[in-house]
Fold this protein.
Amino acid sequence: MTESILAGLAAATAIWFIGAWYLRGADLRAFDRPRSDVPAGLWQSFSTGDHPNDEHRAVIESLSGVTAILGNTPRARQLPVLRDYLDTMFADRRLDARFVAVDAGGVRAEWVLAPGADPATRTLYIHGGAYTMGSPASHRIITSRFSEMTGGAVLAVDYRRMPENPRMAGIADCRTAYRWILESGPDGPAPASVLFVAGDSAGGNLTLSLLAWGRDQGLRAPDAAVALAPQTDATFGSPSLKDNLATDAMLGPMFRTLSRVPRSLLLWATCLRIRKRPCDPVISPVFGDLSNLPPLLIHASEVEMLRDDSVRYFNKARLAGSPVKLQTWNHVVHVWHMFYPELTEARDAFEEIRKFLAARTPRLHGDSPAA
């Protein structure tokens, strides 16, 4: 009996050790650098006041449908209900852009075309939704705004989602769409004169993974990229995942149960689900080589669970010499950009994005290049 107990303890210890060291990857705490350690202008913080205001409370109230679904829907039915909810959450919003379905080299997508959009100025947009939800339809507020800001066409990728498809299927779709948009526009085959890549949350993760892949493939780099509240680390290592659990009105209710699971078990579950080490840079871009990336703007909320995913990626990319900028906002929910134009911070965030993209592509608006 004693021998079997000891053998069981030894096996449990071995499993923990592998999970703790092999699956979680390198220690990233060196990149938890505070803003005071960053050169001026590279990390900017914004706030509309010391406390949440009526606009913030209205946004949180609008998320009550998610809370109701999580509380009143059997777990087996939650995903399809959440998908439908997200796709129709802003369905009554009137948008000036046209939405045209397209086959992007075998990948489903849609062109988003604001009035007067230049077909040679293109943005590849990758939606969020925890790799399981979201679609071009759910993110039309963001994609139509990108089309307006850039004066160009936006290709919103309808990549394959989990759990029906493996995690790598969505990554493969984004890579295919990137190759396609380089030489294909809304009017047919033609090279892009200006190219941006952007995405939010899970789509931000796919955006950052795509940037490193494109660099390593020797493909034409985007003129600039934007990652909105990206997940950069699938090893559950960022301090804000727990520190901001109570203040994240969007992700907190969805992932509160997972926060109680030991990290080693989460690492094993992730590995078995995606068939890769959670620290693989394809899945967790923050663990990869972050040098020689295109100009990149990252947005994050100060109170969201993924805040430190952005901070760590920003600090590591900056120290690797890549031109990266981080902007954070206080009191706002994860990917608050979806609440444009009623939320002041959404209007301000899009203005910062517009200035960032225009400064790095002076041919868009006749501006002088950024320093």
